[in-house]
Amino acid sequence: MSTAASPASATDTSETLGFASAGHVRMGRRVFELEAAALHTCAASLDHAFAEACKRILATQGRVVTTGMGKSGHVARKIAATLASTGTPAFYVHPSEASHGDLGMLARGDVVLALSNSGETPELGDLITYTRRFSLPLIGLVGRAPSTLADQAEVALVLPRLEEACPMGLAPTTSTTAMMAMGDALAGAVLAAKGFDHDDFAVFHPGGKLGARLVRVRDVMHAGAAMPLIAPERPMSEAIVEMTAKRLGCVGVVEAGRLVGIVTDGDLRRHLGQEAFLARPVGEVMTGTPRTITADALAAEAVAQMTEGEPHVTQLFVVARGDDAAPVGVVHLHDCLHAGVA
Question: pLDDT tens, 317-338?
Fold first, then answer.
């Protein structure tokens, strides 16, 4: 039988689509509202059990092993990935595979984080038993207590009673969102306690746009002999030679170890026609108080300084922290862009 729609006027079709679309939007908003309310409820419910779970993770000498079945398993995989990327070694073990040899992936010193909304997931049985036999700390993230998982775990993170956002109230929706958020909360609290910072994060995220955002000025700057430098009393002819040799479009003017000025390609264009220009001292041509940045600043900050200020520039001198203003490098806009920083 044909499934083609019956001919209808443009007005009827528009009205039908409008009514259906409005229903879709209402249902979508209901899901967001229910899940948002659930997250507020979970946040308010955090107590000593959450603090104890953080302590167990921080104290472990091994890895955090996450596990769960079905939708809880998908969430457990994500929690392991988040922990690993924020400085806590972690991986996921499928509970059924654990019963067929993957229990060998667990080692003394590990802590197990098991997820189950019911707390009665049969496939978790062997893994729970293994943690009890070999004294591995067990943290349960559950939606029901009392339950087998909640009772066996040293620390039970019990979610409040939550209404699933599924119209039938059956499909794991609100509950998995709450579990995901609880995993993020654990990771956030643990990384804060460890003092995990931008540099640590960059180590685990070297690729892609995120890695580019974490590039530091020191990673892309030209340092040492690559820096174009000259004294203010030297003639402009020597400044041009230095600028040409280092090919960065500028030369830094240094006096008593301090950066006191800069001469750029633009300065050359503005002064080149003047009489005896090549013999003039660099100090008479330079731009004083040049824009600078420190080596530990993000390269993105350097790009912002170069492109958002007036006038726009294509290079910044990198200076040491403190009051000495000693030049330690030069960062060029093209090097930042080449590194993917924009």
Answer: 999 876 668 899 999 998 888 8
CATH number at residue 256: 3.10.580.10
Evaluate whether residue 78 is within a structural domain: yes
Q: What share of the chain is helix, strand, coil (3-state, %, to 5)?
A: 50, 15, 35
Q: How far is CA 175 from CA 28, 142, 317, in A?
A: 17, 9, 53
State pLDDT tens for residues 265-322. 888 888 877 778 899 999 999 988 888 999 989 888 899 988 886 778 889 999 987 6
Place of tokens 């492109």: 307
Answer yes or no: do 162 and 223 share one domain.
Answer: no
Question: Which phi and psi angles does 202 have, rounded to 5°?
Answer: -65, -30
Number of domains in the chain: 2
Verdict on whether the full-model pTM lies above 0.70 = no
Q: Which long-range contacts (CB under 8 A, 24 or more apart) does 126-135 make?
A: 126/95, 126/98, 126/99, 127/67, 127/93, 127/95, 127/98, 127/99, 127/103, 128/152, 130/98, 130/103, 130/106, 131/106, 134/106, 134/108, 135/108
Does one domain contain both 40 and 185?
yes
Residue 3 scores a pLDDT above 60: no
Angle at CA of residue 169, ends 165 and 174, nearest 5°: 35
